[in-house]
Amino acid sequence: MISKTINKLPKSSVEVTITVPWADMQALWDQTLQKMAQDLELPGFRKGAAPTLMVEQNLGTKLQDEVLKQAMPNFLIQALQGSDIVPIDYPKYDLISFVKGQQLQFKAAITNRPQVSVGNYKTIKAARPTPKTVTDEDVNKVIDDLFKRWKSRQPSSVGQQVGGSAGQQSQTGSINFQGGQTQAAPTNGKTEGPDDTFAKAMGANNLMDLLGKVRKDLESNVSYNNELDFEEAILQEVEKITTVEIPDVLIQDELNRMLVSLQRRVADMGLLLEDYLKGQGKTLEQIKSEWRPQAEKNVRMELGLAEIARQENVSITDQELQAEIDKIQDQRVKQQFSAQEPKLQLRHALRQTRTLDLLKKMVGGS
């Protein structure tokens, strides 16, 4: 029978020292040896037919490494059974001693799920922001920008009109948001502007129809952003009433997530992260140091929302999880959810979203 010592450290860190008698190791050693022997070919013997002792000598430390790779996680699970330790990261193992025929002793460093305390979330107050009104100026600004981009892609032959034949147009029916910004010179003494031909190239029936579509899109964006602002206001209140000693590993994970988001934005600008940082006159470590307070708030907010989900018994069924996976159109992305970890992450995200919806109803904003 294994023996264990569990030492709880600050910030939810836990060090577990485990001792395993050889009697509990021997079966795994023999099974691993037999399995590795099947793939080993030694001079003078058919593959898998060499004597066990010779195989063992030939494998050397490879055999021990393979045994430990299986043994340490399994015995750590045994050691944590019946305890209140729930690991939230991958363990780091430190071998103390082990040779064949003797006990195995090792340490495992893990991060325990932190204790989270949330105040009276049922009394949270958060006001839904007043939506911004979409003006004619907002609509015209989008139309003008689209027109400039579209016009810059048209053939520039002398005397050509914007309303030329369909064969003269470029990429009719598509919008190139990466197009140039230079407007073509006016022809016949008139300043050219958006017309029905341009509108049809954008996928509308005419200019009035395009104006309506743009307005509708802008209003949808306003509504969407307004909802995000309302949710953010609620989450800010959750963060304020959440008390938790945040593990460093969760802060580092959040900083890495923020860094990935920055890299995507920088790539959209056509820059490398190194060039962006150089332009800002900062190092990556300086950026992370500046971000750390916000990362801590984000983690506290996330843990607070998860604790509310626990108290409210919010859950996602297997059927609901699968239904969400079935919505994914990209088969390569969908295939990733055949593994357990992505499923767990998706289930957690759906649970957090449902909990936020519950809070929105409590606040009275929906």
Relevant terms:
single chain, 366 residues, alpha+beta, Alpha-Beta Plaits, Trigger factor, domain 2, 3 domains, four-stranded antiparallel beta sheet, two-stranded antiparallel ribbon, 6 strands, 9% strand
Quick summary:
The protein is of the alpha+beta class and 366 residues long. It is built from twelve helices and six strands.
How would you describe what is shown here?
By secondary structure, this protein is α+β, with helices and mostly antiparallel strands. The chain has three domains: 111 residues, Trigger factor ribosome-binding domain (Alpha-Beta Plaits); 127 residues, no CATH class; 121 residues, Orthogonal Bundle (Trigger factor, domain 2). It is 54% helix and 9% strand. The strands form two sheets. Strands 1-2-4-3 form a four-stranded antiparallel sheet. Strand 1 and strand 2 form a beta hairpin. It is elongated and about 90 Å long. The two termini are 57 Å apart. The relative contact order is 0.09. About 9% of the residues have low confidence.
